[in-house]
TrEMBL record:
It is found in: Secreted, Cell wall. GO terms for biological process: cell wall modification; pectin catabolic process. One of its GO terms (molecular function) is pectinesterase activity. Belongs to the pectinesterase family. Keywords: Aspartyl esterase, Cell wall, Cell wall biogenesis/degradation, Hydrolase, Secreted, Signal. It is an enzyme of class 3 (hydrolase). It comes from the Eukaryota. It holds the Pfam family Pectinesterase. Acts in the modification of cell walls via demethylesterification of cell wall pectin. Residues 30-123, 140-202 form the Pectinesterase catalytic domain. This is Pectinesterase. It comes from Zingiber officinale (Ginger). Its EC number is 3.1.1.11. Gene3D superfamilies: Single-stranded right-handed beta-helix, Pectin lyase-like.
Amino acid sequence: MHYSFILFMLLLALSSCVCIDGAASISKFITVDQNGHGNFITIQSAIDSIPDGNQQWVQIYIKQGTYREKVLIRASKPFIVLQGEGASNTIIDWNDHGDTKNCATFIVYASDFVARDITFSNSYNWNIHAPEVAEAALGWMIANAKDNQNSPTGFVFKYCIIRTSDESTYLGRAWNEWSTVIFFETYMPANIQPQGWEAWHASPNE
């Protein structure tokens, strides 16, 4: 089972929909180039360089290439913009599976996060690694969690393309009772489960 998001813009944290289109809104620029022509050669090292508690927008410009790494943005590092060189040119890929909190290619715990012109891909293939369960396995691409119904946060996927392998899959699953996810003008393949979301065997989430 292979998932990828081709993102023209991904905005996390609905509470902070500020305008960052102008260069004046960005306080610092960092370049990542795996060929060594930037400030860092990995995305994770660029993220780690941003101080904890940062309160100003930092843009990390990721030059073209396939970056095979698992990326984590901790809650202590808000106000990050990831800018790629086009969804077909800048790709972040990893091939993990299993534990929800650790298997994703790209994990964001911070508020105020934006990504543009990047493909996020999980290339783990159930048909190769676990053929005996592949036919029965249904996956989820997104798991959003909120602590309470008044929390003004969530995921927004805007102008995206979702690609999957041939297996049927869910858009995501409810993690707690108040998950909030919006897809805006996003292409979805035909093998997405018609109901879209799975309650994760918890009746309050249905």
